[in-house]
Amino acid sequence: MPDAGLLLAWYDRHRRSLPWRGPPGANRRPDPYRVWLSEVMLQQTTVATVGPRYSRFLARFPDVAALAAADWPAVAEEWAGLGYYARARNLHAGARSLAAQGFPDDVAGLRAIPGIGAYTAAAIAAIAFDAPVVPLDGNVERVVARLARVEAPLPAARKALDALAQGFMVQPAARARPGDFAQALFDLGATLCTPRNPACTLCPWLGGCAAQAAGVQAALPRKAPKPQRPIRHGTHFLLTDGAGRLLVRRRPETGLLGGMLEIPGTPWRAEPWPAAEALSHAPLPGLPFQALEGEARHGFTHFELRLQLLLAAPAEGDALPAGSGLAWMAAAEARAAMPTAMRRLLALWPGV
DNA sequence: AACCCGTGGAG
DNA sequence: TCTCCAAGGGT
Fold first, then answer.
1. Residue at minimal CA–C1' distance from B5?
2. Where are the transmembrane segments (predicted)?
């Protein structure tokens, strides 16, 4: 493995300025809560997306105590649109547990917090507590696979890549600055050692890269092919009152879009719903529904969703079924608290 | 091990 | 339009 000092020297000149990073050369350890929040928010989510959302979340929930004291609807609203909502549920539950226990400062303790896996535990330990570990994320996998010219495809190659990555920590330069070394690897992977067209001529490790020497850098790391996504259909029911409010429902705590607000509708299945069949799932019986033009499309990780929308305006005073979880909410407020799939559905409605 | 779990941007 | 992918984790 090449010289860790070369990468750190490059990082000191080219590091990205990001909201969750302190000023260059800061000797003060960052707040573990902020590192935790940023790492969770960055899971499978781009830096560009996270930037403003991280700042907004932190302004609303500035520390563990504030997040622990919040109720779930407030946290869900703050996370709406970011995806992978289990992250928010775990963050919230974790804050409530940490508010009493304090923040663990090693990998094993961090790993026990829900939503913190091998990567995030290593990242927090390295960045917030100077633990001599290398967090293996997609960037580090790519960088290491190229340096060592690992031809085996992911995810099977992950263990080998992790062993190679941890090997950097035998170097005193890396051990002296574990948090900076981890973030240097992230920045290298994000700005130079990119998935396509890596900028090898600018790389501080140009001389030590086996893939570049062989001319195969752009083809690594190899990945197992992904299964194709099936299509699912649903029909939802937009009920409006005379005061600009919508009938909304909170989804079950676990599973897809768990704990988030939704427009009530049918289950999502492979076959489209004939209107007559869909109506048996309407939240209020016997209403005259009008079909809205068009279809909302939304791609999830493992299936493609196509939704139709039926519109009705219940008579004032129509009672909501007891125990249904249905509630009236102002349209703008509801939209802001909903996941993207539901926002797309609402966009079919000219009312907002 | 193989699935499940969101979203937006780049190419 | 379509594929790929991003500071992954849980089951």
1. A84
2. none
